[in-house]
Amino acid sequence: MNTKDNFLKIKHLYNRAGFGISYADLQKLSRKKLDKVVDNLLKDSQKEDPINLVNDFESKRHLLVQAGLYAKKDLTDDEKKMRQQIIREQNEVSRDLNIAFVTKMINTDAPLREKMTLFWHGHFACRSNNPFFAQQLNNIQRANALGSFKTLLVEVSKSPAMLQYLNNQQNKKGKPNENFARELMELFTLGRGNYTEQDIKESARSFTGWMYDKDGSFIFRKNQHDSGTKTFFGKIGNFEGENIIDIILEKPETAQFIAWKVYKFFVNDNPNEAHVKELATHFYNSKYDIASMMKKMFTSDWFYSPENVGTKIKSPAEFLVGLSREFYVTYNKPQVLIQLQSSLGQYLFNPPNVAGWPGGQSWIDSSSLMLRMRIPSLVLNDGEIDFSGKADPEDEAVIALSRTATSNANANTKPKSYVNANANWPKFLSTLPKGLTPLELTEYLLQPKLNSKITTMVSDNKGLRSTAVEITSMPEYQLC
Amino acid sequence: MNRRNFLRNTGFVAAGSLFVPAFMKPLEAMALDELSLYKNLVVVQLSGGNDGLNTVVPFGNDIYYQKRNSIAIKPEEVIKLNDMQGLNPNMAALQEIYDQGWMTIINDVGYPNPDRSHFRSMDIWQTGSDSNQFLSTGWIGRYLDSNCQTCKFPYTAIEVDDSLSLAMKGQTKKGIALKDPAALFRNTNDPFFKAMLQNDKEHLDEDNLGYLYKTMIETSSSANYIQNTSKVYQSKFTYPNSGFANQLKTVSKFISSGLKTRVYYVSLSGFDTHVNQTGQQGNLLKQYSEGMAAFLKDLKSNNKLEDTLVITFSEFGRRVEQNASNGTDHGTANNMFVFGGRLKKQGIFNAAPNLSDLDTGDLKYQLDFRQVYGTILDKWLDVNNADILNKKFNTLDFI
User: Which end of chain B is less congested by CB atoms within 10 angstroms, N or C?
Assistant: First the structure.
């Protein structure tokens, strides 16, 4: 076994399957066989590790109060205040939830589970104003991240967040709403072109009555369900939601579509059809066992071939989490993580639409690239923020409320703000072997192969710390 | 060489001569004098869902007053445009613009199966999609992709903001976002940034890395071009003191100094007025109108108004009936404004909203927003709208 070769493979594995790896861990693992390392990576991720930030009891109380307030036509001033208070609290908790997810990714010992959760977070893209619903969906994605795709799909389909987002609350007998049925096939399973409009209609009828109650729990309302006969992909029956999901999973196109998305996320923006096919067949034959598919991928030779190493553009989440993990960064004002996500175009829990973030080169335009190249120095050297980004459209109501006549005139004079983060340099430096040269550090920090320009730039004997800041500010650092 | 400035802060670094890789030179060399008559489009986005019925007020319709007993604008306060509709009193600055024939109001613009979520509806307006279709490129972005005569310049579309909207992103080409041309110029002329661009030829074949370098080179080239072309221009006009007016002032500076840019994008947010609407919306409409009036007069004084078309949209209008909190909730169709010195149909373009024929409390749309885009693409930006919008939309005769 060539240790140097193994070193590079494991570094690649941890960059794709996780968010990077410390030099010390990398050295340790390099002495092991690759398939053992992959086994360990999967084993480390067995623990479920849910987010328990949003208080169940408190959020149910909010739901009940809200339901009561919506039912009333004229609200008293006190009731209006109460409603506003709840919206304010929910917005605040939603931001905390976002930070909790990011913090988990930064600190986790189970990097593959977090990375898979991030993948499903984009695959089953959803927005919810209710942080309890959003947390619940994230925990479903996290619990089943490496489990059975069928269980994951059923649980996501029953989650209040998704039922609400895709209007299944309004999908009733005689008055079907096709939104969920359409996205289930177009975006979650089969992919466009593998079903007919008639299939959507029949599927929508089968999902009538899939709702959540005022406590925020799934409920099958029989009296809203259309129990008539349906014809779905040529099969005829008294179908309910679960039957539809079973029929969809019987179709190999579903395995093909998921394998294709997994490949794009973990391997290459431009999928190799033969490799995807290999993965899809394995996934289908394993009865949709996600861990088994991941193991197959991470142990395939093509996963480590040069065209797949150091060639993917990091998503904003991968970039921010990777940088923070690498240098053991603590954020004294974690809200800045939200500002950074939104300025870079990936505000977690707030995907652009149900299709998720398009990814790849769409992450990069002139302003987002300039910002990416500046963030390492802002975070690692506590620089001053001189950008504000755009408001999320869903925050407009809050903006409207907070605007007053006087604040408008001052819209342009903002107080200076700083990232206010601390990198743990002693800890970072302690993970490096003695006598590591700036060039070796560069080789470790960057995934793409080094070229003469970079070698020249880092060779003029600077310290490791300034080398690290410089390297992470390079366009090459945007790739993994 | 000190590369630290870029890394440490945003501090000013004296500009040296930018290293321009050989393959970029032809682009810069061909930039000037290629096109004499330059038509500009300025897109103004009102984010949050502006209440169109309290913007262009249907004071001649009793239903309006019945449905909005506490927030309706009184007839005597409305700036009357005809017997039926008039402007919100906070829009007084636009009266002169309207009287000059520089403004067209298009009523009831929308799309089939409207979505009431801000995000989704904004997505639909920015991408020009159907309501059940998800596109990852914007309508202006696809215009850039279309290889139109002027689209080869990376600065063909500029958004005056910190980040780039989806509307401005195409598959292969994207617009550029900048709030302050001088700041971008400083950053791209920083020694570290310039060092990164040296000897970059070896990256050009590589897929994603090549794309990153191409983006950096274009940013740098655009920053230089924009700063060098516009830095000498000084507006003689006084603009109101607001962030929005400042954005427009920057656009005017770019247009008036002869920048070869075809599309500009600016936005004003805060229109989601569910609670106590009157004061908030009034304030925003005042900012909007005063900014726009200054901008249009500034362009006129520089003889640029003839070559400029401005449109204003919001992701949706609001429900006809007010809510119990003296505000309005998310609705559907809404009015759009068009401004310019060469409007074919000035004033109110089509019939006022029909308040007695609603779709579960919401206005029905008369015109698809893609007919407005299509008209602009065909008649102003000189491309076939079907190439950009994925199907042909009938054009309108406001230009």
Answer: N
Structure tokens at A355: 């299709």
The whole-model pTM stands at 0.87
What secondary structure does DSSP assign to A177-227, as a single string?
--HHHHHIIIIIIS-TTSS-HHHHHHHHHHTTTEEE-TTS-EEE-GGGS--
How far does the CA of residue A182 sit from the closest CA of chain B (Å)?
9
- Are the Cβ atoms of B119 and A350 closer than 8 angstroms? yes
Report the 3 state secondary structure along B282-321: HHHHHHHHHHHHHHHHHHHHCCCHHHEEEEEEECCCECCC
Q: Structure tokens of A459?
A: 């060779």
Residues of chain B in contact with residue A409, where contact means CB-CB under 8 angstroms, are 241-242
Chain A: closest CA distance from residue B117 (Å): 8
* CA triple B172-B177-B180, angle to 5 deg: 150
Give the whole-angstrom CA distance, residue A12 versus residue A251: 33
Q: Parallel, antiparallel, or unpaired for β A384-385 and A417-418?
A: antiparallel
Phi and psi, residue B231, nearest 5°: -65, -30
Among candidate residues A276, A125, A119, A253, the one with its CA nearest the CA of residue A192: A253
> Closest Cα partner for A344 from A328, A362, A324, A322?
A362
Q: Which has the closest alpha carbon to B53: B234, B314, B289, B251?
A: B314
pLDDT at residue number A392: 67
| Chain A residues inside the 8 Å CB shell of B9 | 377, 381, 383-384
- Residues of chain A positioned with their CB less than 8 A from the CB of B209: 311, 448, 475-476, 479
**Which 8-state DSSP code applies to residue A370?**
H
Q: In whole angstroms, how far apart are CA A7 and each of A34, A448, B360?
A: 10, 14, 64
Query: How far is Cα B44 from Cα B52, in angstroms, rounded to an integer?
Result: 15
The rounded distance, in Å, linking the Cα atoms of A421 and A378 is 9
Task: Go through A242-276 and write b for each residue having 16 or more CB atoms within 10 A of its CB, e for each that does not.
Answer: bbbbebbbebebbbbbbbbbbbbbbbbbebeeebb
Tokens, residue B396:
């309108």
Question: Considering chain B, what is the average pLDDT of its residues?
Answer: 88
CB contact under 8 A, A367 and B48: no
Q: Which of A75, A311, A366 sits opposite B208 (nearest CB)?
A: A311
How many Å apart are CA A453 and CA B337, to the nearest integer?
52
Q: What is the pLDDT of residue A399?
A: 64
Of A353, A367, A405, the CB nearest to B162: A367
Contact B240, A392 (CB under 8 A): no
The confidence band for A416, taking pLDDT boundaries of 50, 70 and 90, is: low
CA pair distance A311, A151, nearest whole angstrom:
33
